């Protein structure tokens, strides 16, 4: 299989290599070999003109990754499932879709169970480091596919942590139920974690993932199903918006995992592989993820963040973002719209 696909790819390249790929023959062979290996790894089949067009995108990514990794940064980049996509295609394939109001303070309006400013001036003890993955309150990395449902994965992640910390049982909750049924959010067209917490409360809980599995990876929301029963004790009694400071975020993370929104469309985020990301990465919030802890790595303070792009992306599905960043709103804007539920 590997040999035949390589021959097909090589033939496609030889037949269609034109000035659209601006390299000498030695460079073309170098990039082609790497690209064919990438195609095999990710089960991608291309031919003809499309092969050449995608090879050029891949080659640009290869150049960026190589230049970065040889420059001595605190984080590394690597190819992943998005290496053949343009930036616009990446945004669609990654399902970027968190909808944060222009004025973040208006996230939940006058809901009486919403705490607008959490932990400011509280007496919560903060440890030197926290990792809720190690504590057992975080489910495995999931994959949202091309559906803009990141907000639902961030929501279930925070709910799973709160549920485990109260009941001692790690329960995987249904993102699909939120995508299909949550009338405060917009399914594959985006949403916000606070709104989802409110919907779960009013629905008197959320079903287990096993009873309402995820089916929207292709980018389409489904019809709301009423055949499952919400997990007992899964309805939030309240949810708290974390004040926009590292001190407040650390206090919140001593309570449990925290839903956060970030900007995730920058190249350094797209190809992130390991280490602590310290580069400026924007604050135009477009992606919901889950903060699961904090600590220090090789002298750099970090937050550990769980993504929903599968285990092949990043550090086994996670990214380490700089803590105490000089960037307003936190690294990638992660302090700007953080919240967590209480059960």
UniProtKB/TrEMBL annotation:
Q: Which InterPro entries match?
A: Papain-like_cys_pep_sf (IPR038765), Pept_cys_AS (IPR000169), Pept_his_AS (IPR025660), Peptidase_C1A (IPR013128), Peptidase_C1A_C (IPR000668), Peptidase_C1A_papain-like (IPR039417), Prot_inhib_I29 (IPR013201)
| CDD domains per UniProt | Peptidase_C1A
Pfam families, per this entry?
Inhibitor_I29, Peptidase_C1
Q: Where is the signal peptide?
A: 1-17
What keywords were assigned to this record?
Answer: Disulfide bond, Signal, Zymogen
Q: Which GO terms describe its biological process?
A: proteolysis
Domain (Peptidase C1A papain C-terminal) ranges: 126-342
Q: Which domain of life is it from?
A: Eukaryota
GO MF annotation: an example = cysteine-type peptidase activity
Q: Which residues form the Cathepsin propeptide inhibitor domain?
A: 35-90
Asked if the Swiss-Prot or TrEMBL record annotates the protein with the keyword NAD, the reply is no
What does the sequence similarity comment in the record state about its family?
Belongs to the peptidase C1 family.
Provide the protein name. Uncharacterized protein
């Amino acid at each position: 299989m590997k040999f035949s696909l390589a021959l097909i790819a090589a033939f496609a390249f030889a037949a269609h290599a034109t000035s659209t790929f601006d390299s000498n023959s030695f460079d073309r062979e170098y990039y082609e070999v790497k690209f064919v290996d990438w195609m095999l790894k990710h089960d991608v089949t291309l031919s003809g003109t499309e092969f050449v067009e995608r090879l050029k995108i891949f080659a640009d990514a290869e150049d960026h990754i190589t230049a970065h990794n040889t420059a001595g940064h605190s984080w590394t980049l690597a190819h992943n499932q998005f290496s053949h996509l343009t930036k616009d295609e990446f945004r669609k394939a990654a399902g970027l879709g968190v909808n944060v109001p222009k004025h973040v303070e208006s996230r939940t309006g006058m809901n009486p169970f919403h705490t607008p400013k959490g932990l400011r001036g509280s007496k919560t003890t903060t440890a030197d480091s926290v990792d809720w993955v190690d504590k057992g309150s975080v489910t495995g990395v999931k994959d949202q596919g091309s559906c803009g449902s990141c907000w639902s994965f961030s929501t279930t992640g925070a709910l799973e942590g709160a549920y485990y910390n109260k009941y001692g049982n790690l329960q995987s909750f249904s993102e699909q139920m939120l995508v299909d049924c949550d009338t405060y959010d917009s399914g594959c067209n985006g949403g916000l974690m606070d709104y989802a917490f409110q919907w779960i409360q009013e629905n008197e809980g959320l079903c287990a993932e096993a009873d309402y599995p995820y089916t929207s990876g292709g980018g389409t929301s489904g019809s709301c199903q009423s055949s499952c029963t919400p997990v007992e004790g899964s309805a939030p009694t309240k949810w708290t918006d974390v004040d926009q400071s590292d001190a407040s975020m650390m206090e919140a993370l001593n309570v449990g995992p925290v839903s956060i929104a970030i900007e995730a469309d920058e190249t350094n985020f797209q190809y992130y592989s390991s280490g602590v990301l310290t580069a400026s990465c924007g604050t135009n919030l477009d992606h919901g993820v889950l903060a699961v802890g904090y600590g220090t790595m090789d002298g750099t303070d970090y937050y550990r963040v769980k993504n929903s792009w599968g285990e092949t992306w990043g550090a086994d599905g996670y990214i380490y973002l700089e803590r105490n960043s000089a960037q307003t709103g936190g690294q990638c804007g992660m302090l700007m719209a953080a919240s967590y539920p209480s059960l």
